[in-house]
Amino acid sequence: MDEEKITRLIRELLIEIGEDPDREGLLRTPERVMDMWKFLSSGYRQDVKEIVNGAIFESEANNMILCRDIEVYSLCEHHLLPFFGTCTIGYIARHHVIGVSKLARIVDYFSRRLQLQERLTAQIARAVKDSVDAIGVGVIIEAKHMCMAMRGVEKQLSSMTTSSVLGCFQRDATCRSEFLHLAGRQNK
Ligand code: ZN
After folding, report:
1. CA of 80 to the centre of ligand 1 (A)
2. CA distances, 177 to each of 42, 144, 180, 182 (Å)
3. Can you tell me the mean pLDDT for 15-30?
4. pTM, rounded to two decimals
5. Ligand 1 center from residue 77 Cα (angstroms)
6. Roughly how many angstroms between the first and final C-alpha of the chain, as a whole number?
7. Could you report the per-residue pLDDT of 74-118, keeping only the tens digit for each?
8. Is 187 a residue whose pLDDT tops 60?
9. 120 FRET partner, CA 20 to 30 A, in 34, 126, 138, 164?
10. Which CATH superfamily is domain 3-40 in?
11. Cα separation of 136 and 121, whole Å?
């Protein structure tokens, strides 16, 4: 990332929208916004293998493992506005399980870039499945999109739910329904 260039571009943006980047309140804004972009796009510069590294454990468990309501903050690729909500991940291990904090790190890894909620959901499911060679994985994300709330149709209360199921979660109705039950989604 060329930090100086981004800072300069933000300053130009301020001028183009009719602001004075030299007024007191905006003096350090280009730099702060550059820092923010660095953080919110950090997923592009990480490696998912390094993230899960060292947190894969052997296990005989063959029941479903579920982590509910992991917070998600991402940016919609159409408007560069935030969408945010919660992510629930369930999987059935074959011989390995993953440290629970790493599930949250995987969510952050794919969230900190420009995203579509549908793609984010599928990428998380795929990464969890691949990292532990799970028999099956299910991911549900429920999120509110600021591009719906503060512009366009201006619907502040709507939320979007996406899911992605792989392996036995896809093939086996019992498995899928146990996942939905544990995720608290059966009657929604
Ligand atoms: Zn959008």
Report:
1. 7
2. 35, 25, 5, 9
3. 98
4. 0.93
5. 6
6. 43
7. 999 999 999 999 999 999 999 999 999 999 999 999 999 999 999
8. no
9. 34
10. GTP cyclohydrolase I, N-terminal domain (1.10.286.10)
11. 15
